[in-house]
Amino acid sequence: MDKYDYLILDVIRNYKERYGTYIRLSEIEKRFWQRIQNDPSLSVGKARIGERVAKLYIKDLIQNKDGYMVTRKGREVLSFAPLEIVSMAS
Fold first, then answer.
1. What is the pLDDT of residue 35?
2. pLDDT along the chain (90 residues), means of 10
3. CA 48 to CA 64: how far, in whole Å?
């Protein structure tokens, strides 16, 4: 996993904490691209969000039930993210 995967997990988790509902794919994409544009250390060319969301789903880090949510396994992975990635994603 790299900083883009952690960023997706963080976007999903933050949305659930803030709004109390699951997030739609279009909203994940919008928030993901906003964060990438605001951080000069991230490259748009390396993002490939659709591929990353699919990979996170296959690894059982997220699931889709009327919107995306981070699974227990995904929360555990996010909690062990390197400190610089967590601070960058917030």
1. 87
2. 89 94 95 87 78 94 94 91 56
3. 19
Residues paired with residue 63 on neighbouring β-strands, in sequence order: 69
Number of structural domains (the chain) is 1
68 domain-assigned: yes
The residue segments making up the domain with residue 46 are 3-83
Q: What is the DSSP string of the chain?
A: --HHHHHHHHHHHHHHHHHSSPBPHHHHHHHHHHHHHH-TTS-GGGT-HHHHHHHHHHTTSEEESSSEEE-HHHHHHHHTS-HHHHHHH-
* Residue 83 one-letter amino acid: L
Task: For residue 76, give both structure tokens.
Answer: 């555990």
- Residue 21's identity, in one-letter code, is T
